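User: Can you write out an input/output pair for a complex, sequences first and structure second?

Assistant: Here is one pair. Inputs:
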Amino acid sequence: MPVPDEELMQAYARGDAAAFETLYGRHKGALFGLVLRSVRTRGEAEEIFQEIWMRAIEARARYVPSAKFSTWLYTIAHRRLIDHWRARGLTLVSLDAQDDDTPVLDPPAGPSAEPHELLVATRVRDRLAAALAALPVAQREAFLLHAEGDLTVAQIAEATGTHEEAAKSRLRYALARLKEAAADD
Amino acid sequence: MTERDDELLRRYRAMPKEAPPASLDASILAASRRAVSRRPASRWAMPISIAAVLVLALGVVIEVQREAPDEGGPGAPATNVPAPASAPAGPPAVEGATPAPASRPFTAPARPAPRAKARIDLAPSRESARPEPADAMTSPGEAPSRAQAPPAAEAKQAPFRADDASPSTPAARAPAPSMQSARVAAPPPPAAGASSGAARAADPLEKELERIARLRDEGRDDEADTALERFRREHPDYRIAPPLWDRVRRKP
């Protein structure tokens, strides 16, 4: 039985570097996917991805095992992404938008815009990716936390600092929009 | 979650996954290792430093307490004043057991440095916190002036009482050899050079020596010897000016 994330993080806080390597291996793919689909370029994604992990490293002593590690990690990611969006002039109004009519401010292109991706992607996948990129920021974040981080509605609410009803609503709208995009296949 | 939701998630997760480059992995993992490898030093440096200081301080305190009972005890031989030939005290521990020449009437104590340090530390508290005993060399009327004399005033008596310097002064911390050399090289006490406060603080002891000198003059050598011996016990580090020493010591 694998060691729980929370125990690994505590071990790392006590100085066990190998524990962190295990944690990193478990979560790097999902976190990178979330960040990559939340920003415009891969360069930005790599920079933010690294900063999120550095914040986690620096905050290791403050980690409280009562919180699920992934929720804690994605809380850090959420805050870093907010900083990024603010720096890019994207208003946070879209974070709180509840309906799918909220306009997206300059939606990120995502990896699907890259040529090598286009060569291997199916049409459905392209549409799904495009629909995801076109989602309002808050809805996209809720979907990515659920799909990449495997977070529940309650955990999404905790990670994004909102209440459960708002998180549930964001996720529901995101799923509806994406299902609509994928249904045309 | 509906079946359609699950199907959507399945399709999403089937999309090509991007992974961070290996160089980024290496950079993050290296940072994570550095963070915890630095930690032991920063975590233990302060406690170890504190523990070392405490051990040293405890050692000094124990040493001082171990030496303290010797102070003024029976047969305590440590003194700077050369013992007269007829002095009944125990075996002299000083290099000048016999009267020294007038040009160098005082000798350094032949005790190790810790004892000297202990005396330095204990003497002020004994003088200030405990009233002089009835048979003390100083009269009851004179004791308060000594007890009230500020440490700085006593420190100013350095030409007279080199060991009375405050423990915080470098001279007080110096090892015995340098104290000895300082004592030997010290010039004779200036009659008018000392501050009035220091002179006042020294008065009771000088008066006592004057009393012993008068006993000598009156031929009451036994009483003078006894008083001088008591004076030596009470003030082992007091340096007697050469002219006064010539008057209080037993004449051959």
